[in-house]
Amino acid sequence: MILVSVWTLAASSFVRFYMITRPKTHYTKSCNHSAIIRVTVIIWLSSIIVAGMPMLGWDKYVFSPITYSCGIYGLPGYHRYYFLFFCIIAFPGPFILMSFSYSMI
């Protein structure tokens, strides 16, 4: 669930950016309790879906007895898209959001 922690950090950095750069009146209107719960649910659901993709046919998890951990074993043709998703969206997305948020503060 690394995606959950990374995207949660990105969301909190954006909230900090929004809270500092916008007046308090705008912050309370758009960042209320229900909006924060919605974002948290979206982060968790999307992370569960991404983690479940190998169980649904995109790649598969393989146990490595040497390191006592599971890794993704790519199936021909499908692993390329899963790998590209991680390289383009899953980790650079939060990095770009956090970089933008903290550079604009």
Number of helices: 5
Name the helicity range.
Answer: 55-70%
Looking at how many chains there are and whether they match, the oligomeric state comes to single chain
Structural class: mainly alpha
Mean pLDDT, all residues: 80
Question: Which geometry do the CA atoms define?
Answer: elongated
Low-confidence stretches: none
Strand order of the largest sheet: 1-2
Strand content: 5-15%
How is the biggest beta sheet arranged?
A: 2 strands, antiparallel
- Whole-angstrom Rg: 17 Å
> Whole-Å distance between the termini?
29 Å
Encode the helix/strand succession as letters. HHHEEHH
Number of strands: 2
Give a structural overview.
This protein is mainly alpha-helical and 105 residues long. The chain has 5 helices and 2 strands. The protein has helices at 2-21, 24-30, 33-52, 79-90, 92-104; strands at residues 60-64, 69-73. It has a two-stranded antiparallel ribbon with strand order 1-2. Helix 1 runs antiparallel to helix 3 (33-52) and helix 1 runs parallel beside helix 5 (92-104).
How do you describe this structure in short?
The chain is mostly helical. 69% of the residues lie in helices and 10% in strands.
What are the main properties of this structure?
105 residues, mainly alpha, 2 strands, 10% strand, elongated
Topology, pairings included?
Blueprint: H1 2-21, H2 24-30, H3 33-52, E1 60-64, E2 69-73, H4 79-90, H5 92-104
Antiparallel strand pairs: 1-2
Helix pairs in contact: 1-3, 1-5
